[in-house]
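Good morning C.,

I know you're traveling, so I'll keep this short. The sequence:
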Amino acid sequence: MDVDGGGSKRVFHRLSGGAGGGGPSPSTDPRNQKVCFHWRAGKCNRFPCPYLHRELQPPPPQNGTASSKRQYHGFSGDDPEPRRPNNSTWGRVHGGAGGNNKFIRKTEKLCHFWSQGNCGYGDKCKYLHCWTFGDGLSLLTQLEGHQKVVSGIAFPFGSDKLYTGSKDETVRVWDCQSGQCTAVINLGGEVGCMINEGPWIFVGLLNMVKAWNIQTNMELSLSGPVGQVYSMVVGKDLLFAGTQDGSILAWKFNAAANCFEPVTSLTGHSLAVVSLVVGANRLYSGSMDHSIKVWSLETLQCLQTLTDHSSVVMSLLCWNQFLLSCSLDKTIKVWVATQNGSLEVTYTHNEEHGVLALDGMPDSEGKPVLLCACNDNSVRLYDLPSFAERGKVFSKQEVRAIQRGPGSLFFTGDGTGQLRIWSMLADSASSA
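The tokens, ready to paste straight into the viewer:
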């Protein structure tokens, strides 16, 4: 099983841009190939500034090679060891010349009656009659078929198929060219989660994990979980599954025997483990017991328990040296390692509603964007690290599954069973 994928090179690169004023732009003048320190701290007041107010453009691919399997650098995976950075930019909008980020007013709301097809106010309605709000966001298509909430989305690298799992006890396979459902797999139990790694699709079920190899058509059943499997992740050649009884089971693939062999069970959570992520040689687990546990991938021992959330920790995400967590307590917390290696909160972002899921991706200019699903039936998009809101997408019911796709695409699955494909382009102001 391919579980490496070159994740150690996950670093975000941004396009270069001018700092304003006449003469050659910093992107073309070799004397000024430096990023303004004050701009990065969010407090440059020089206009024109002699230094860049955007980070440098990435080098072109060598020898014409395409990007690696893990093309969304900076989010999740084998990131660098945590270090204590200058974190003054968290929660601050970049200002000064060339700073184009802006907050979007949170008063914009979707018209409930319009979403149901029966708003009588028409153009005079004071609420939105659109599934998106914000520049560059568009709904490309929606795929119908699931009868209940979509609980997992998998898009294997290099595949022309999209896989979705649902609490309607099925997995559907969609053709990416036609948008048609090409197969429906009846599993006889609710899908709690779904991930892909290399050629493998993993589906979390009641008391079981199903594994399919899409290249060889091999199908395996991994026994051992007690109750529903709510979360899975792969790290250090191990498949981890968070279960309803609070344990985390680990398997290792035996290529000679063509099977997954149980390795261990990590115990410590008192309630179900609903979120897992791997980064910086650590496994992070979020639970219904309101805690996050940090596990060593080398020893599989618990290193630390984080208790700053006051409700269920719904989702976890690694971005560069930071850990992001979200909860039904209406917060997103940003964690960073101290000098002794333990994690502490460096920034807390407050939402108006409980937060259900996180994912991250770059926009078309390579800028990191956080996707944040809330239980008001919306997904908010934030620039990192400023948390400047750049837009929202709406659904008929709350979104429980988010999956980034190729290029500027991402997928969402909501409580009605509807799967939607969205496009996120660069903000028109920032690309001018």
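Safe travels,
E.
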